[in-house]
Amino acid sequence: DADAIYHLGNKYEYGYLGLPKDVTRAIELMAEAAELESVEAHYNLGVTYYYGDDVEEDKPRGIRHWQEASMKGHVLSRHFLGVAEYNQGNRELAVQHFMTFA
């Protein structure tokens, strides 16, 4: 179950429920959940890779995860795509992303 795998990964990411904080295991679980089409896993992996949270920054990889989630209706992923485009100077494309979920 993609949601269960995602939530377990989330618990490892932060060390909740008595589990040790294990970012490597968290990313493995979230990647598995993303392969099973979890939009929350795609979103979370997008944030993790784009901003380099506990991993080496990989903006293109982060954007790909946000794209996957936004194509499945994840509004916050679409917002982050807009912010990424805005920060790169692509104002028109940023506005298109923002208008998609407005």
Describe this structure in words.
The protein has helices at 2-14, 23-35, 39-51, 59-71, 75-87, 91-100. The chain is mainly α. The protein is 74% helix and 0% strand. Helix 2 (23-35) packs across helix 3 (39-51). The N and C termini lie far apart (31 Å). The longest helix is centred in the first third of the chain and has 13 residues, at 2-14.
What can be said about this structure in brief?
This protein has helices at 2-14, 23-35, 39-51, 59-71, 75-87, 91-100. The protein has 102 residues and is mainly α. The chain starts with a helix and ends with a helix.
The overall pLDDT average reads 96
Separation of the first and last Cα atoms = 31 Å
**What is the N-to-C order of secondary-structure elements (H for helix, E for strand)?**
HHHHHH
Radius of gyration: 14 Å
Which short descriptors sum up this protein?
102 residues, mainly alpha, 6 helices, globular
Please describe the topology of this protein:
Blueprint: H1 2-14, H2 23-35, H3 39-51, H4 59-71, H5 75-87, H6 91-100
Helix pairs in contact: 1-2, 2-3, 3-4, 4-5, 5-6
